Amino acid sequence: MARRLDNLNDLFEHELKDIYDAENRLKDALRVQASESTAPEIKAAFSAHQKETEGQIRRLERVFEAFGKEPNRGRGCAGIQGLLEEHKEFKGEDPSREILDVFNLGAAQKVERYEITAYSGLIDLAIHLGLDDAVELLEANLAEEEAALEKVIELAETVEVYSKVSPPARGA
C-alpha cells in the first residue's frame, strides 16, 4: 500500500524524488541526443547540458542531505518517462537524421519547460518549509534550466537544420 502524503514535508520529498529521477534519466537521454545530432552546435549543446545535469544531480543530493532523506530513483518520474517514450516512438518511425535534429530541439524545449516548472514548485515548497539551503541549491538548478531553454530556442532559430530538410510540395 502506498504511503499517505498529508503534509508539505511529504510533498516536498515526493517532488524532490521525482526531479531526481528525471535528472538521472535526462543525463542519459542527453548523451543519446548528442550522439544523434548532425549539427555540431546541437551536439555541443546537448553534451554541455549533459555535464551540467550531472552537477544538478549533485545539488539535488545535497538537498536530500539537508532535508535528512536519502535520494533514490524508486518509482520514477512519470512526466519525463512520457517524454522519453515519445522520443523512442518517434525514432521508431525511422526519421532522417536531419528531421531527428529538428524533433530533438522541440523535445528539449518540452523537457526544459517541465524541469523549470518542477524546480519552481520545489522552491515554493522549500520556502514554505523554511529550507533556506535547499532554496539556494534549487534556484541554481532552476537558473541553469532557464538558460538551457534559452539556448535550445536560440539553436532552433539559428542553426541551419531546417534548411537541410525541404518541405513537401504543396498538396502532397
Describe this structure in words.
The chain is mainly alpha-helical and 172 residues long. The protein has a single domain, classed as Ferritin, core subunit, four-helix bundle (Ferritin, Up-down Bundle), CATH 1.20.1260.10. It contains five helices and no strands. Helix 1 runs antiparallel to helix 2 (40-67). The termini are far apart. The mean pLDDT is 91.
Strand content: under 5%
Query: How many DSSP helices?
Result: 5
Report the CATH superfamily.
Ferritin, core subunit, four-helix bundle
Structural Rg: 18 Å
> What class would the helix/strand composition place it in?
mainly alpha
**Could you name the CATH topology?**
Ferritin
What secondary-structure arrangement, pairings included, does this model have?
Elements: H1 8-36, H2 40-67, H3 78-91, H4 97-129, H5 132-158
Attribute tags:
172 residues, elongated, mainly alpha, Ferritin, single chain
Write a brief structural summary.
With 172 residues, the protein is mostly helical. It has helices at 8-36, 40-67, 78-91, 97-129, 132-158.
